[in-house]
From TrEMBL:
Protein name: Transposase
Organism encoding this protein: Paraburkholderia phytofirmans OLGA172
Annotated NCBIfam families: transpos_ISKra4
Length: 480
């Protein structure tokens, strides 16, 4: 069996203007093997590359023909020179003729020569290929992204993982200040729940040339990791909108976070509720916002610390330590202490903490055999009390706040850090990043997570993702 694939170009009126034979496929009947049905992947890639080559050549020739005549006098411009050029597309590398014409004698061109493709083909690669590089480079390592493209698409020539990295950094810089196409929240809320946390990636080594003393001094002044500030905003039970930055914490960072709140539909709220784990270095990020800030200490961190105290006290729970106490006096006191922390009664849990510490001392005095377990429980209790005392202003009635539908944990921010930073930049991948490279990748992963990446791509190249065909793109040779 032989199949000939032919391209026919017309002007839209049904008359064939040009007919090009693209490829011939051969399937000898006598050499049929089980499962050998249809086109193979290599044949499909060759076919796509051939169709792309003929389509680009015909499209550029018609572009030349439509602009060869002078707009003022209508005279055909004379050819000055031409040369063969190449362009990288998502369907392989193609070659075309790049012409330069002599200017018309009427003086309408304003220059000696006219290059018609100067403003039409401004890059050596198409925008679709660059955005494809960026989407793959933001979701997987650059070398792996190159291997996936080589496996599924026709090769683009001399592209390698460095090309994908350069495109990723360039487009990451261009979209970091792009405004969203749609508002995340249609109605403005009086209170915005903003969760802030930090993820870390390893910094790349200094490769700048210079004396060893200078490099050691620079390495000493630079941290071994880059802090990525991640903020998530949204109502409880819904997918939050995410913002992230790997840039230093300057006034510009606060301006970008303010714009993030406005773009998310929370313009000029009366109050911003900030959920944090008690890291006061994050306080400067949100305190400079032009809103009234209320800090809420993350209950998940408090709960984990209380859990360690519970595990240490559980083996010591049985036993009467005072004359008026019950058989589980130590455990009952801890349960009441935990309850008062949950409802935000600071004076009450401070009082019960002192009584709890006194009972632990009594237990160690009466039973020296469990002194090591008592010291472990006392240490865990002192840790949680110190943590609560240093963040007493951020403690609230968590029970009432949760019943009102508010968030009490930064889990939605930590999951966003895992999806933005962890899966791509540090976990199970021994990578080092420059600050610019990390910031660009973070911006792209945020756009993908917020489902805004393809909208931003179509804003720059409206034809990306469109099927400009007349016939249905899915059809069979015979109806079934």
């Amino acid at each position: 069996m032989r199949c000939t694939i032919v391209l026919e170009f017309d002007n839209g009126d049904g008359s064939v203007v040009k007919r090009v034979e693209v490829m011939r496929l051969h399937r000898p009947i006598e050499d049929q093997t089980p499962g050998d049905v249809g086109l193979s992947l290599s044949e499909g890639k060759s076919l796509l590359n051939c169709v792309q080559q003929e389509f680009v050549v015909e499209q550029i020739e018609r572009f030349f023909a439509s602009r060869r005549s002078c707009v003022d006098c209508g005279v055909q411009r004379r050819l000055h020179d031409n040369h063969c050029s190449e362009m990288k597309t998502a369907l392989g590398k193609v070659y075309y003729c790049r012409e330069r014409w002599k200017a018309c004698n009427c003086g309408a061109d304003g220059a000696r020569y006219v290059s018609p493709l100067k403003n039409y083909l401004t890059e050596a690669s198409t925008g679709e290929l660059r955005w494809l590089h960026v989407e793959l480079g933001a979701t997987m390592p650059y070398r792996q992204a190159k291997a996936v493209m080589d496996l599924l698409l026709p090769t683009s020539g001399r592209d390698n993982h460095v090309t994908i990295r350069n495109h990723t950094v360039a487009i990451g810089k261009s979209i970091q200040h792009a405004r969203p196409v749609r508002r995340w929240c249609e109605t403005e809320k009086p209170i915005a729940e903003l969760g802030i946390d930090v993820g870390y990636v390893r910094r790349a080594r200094c490769n700048r040339k210079g004396s060893g003393k200078e490099n050691r001094a620079e390495a000493g002044n630079r941290s071994s990791s880059i802090a990525v500030v991640v903020a998530a905003l949204g109502q409880a039970g819904k997918q939050p909108r995410v913002w992230a930055s790997a840039m230093p914490r300057t006034r510009r960072l606060n301006q970008e976070m303010t714009r993030f709140l406005e773009d998310s539909g929370y313009g000029d709220p009366n109050e911003v509720v900030v959920l944090t784990d008690g890291a006061w270095d994050l306080a400067g990020v949100a305190n400079d916002l032009p809103y009234d800030n209320e800090w809420i200490l993350d209950w998940a961190h408090i709960g984990r610390m209380l859990r360690r105290v519970e595990q240490a006290i559980a083996p010591l729970a049985y036993g009467r330590l005072t004359d008026s106490g019950s058989a589980f006096e130590l455990w009952d006191l801890f349960v009441r202490f935990r309850h008062y922390v949950w409802v935000g009664r600071i004076a009450a849990w401070q009082q019960f903490e002192a009584r709890l510490a006194h009972l632990l001392d009594l237990r160690e005095t009466r039973d020296p055999a469990v002194s090591s377990q008592v010291r472990k429980a006392s240490y865990s209790l002192s840790n949680v009390v110190t943590y609560l005392d240093s963040n007493a202003e951020s403690l609230i009635d968590y029970r009432t706040w949760q019943c009102a539908g508010g968030r009490i944990s930064t889990g939605f921010v930590e999951s966003s850090i895992n999806r933005i930073v962890g899966r791509r930049m540090c976990k199970s991948q021994h990578m080092r990043w420059s600050r610019v490279g990390a910031h660009s990748v973070v911006q792209l992963r945020v756009a993908l997570l917020n489902q805004e990446f393809h909208e931003l791509a179509r804003r720059q190249f409206p034809w990306i993702g469109q099927r400009r065909v007349t016939w249905p793109w899915q059809r069979t040779s015979q109806p079934f």
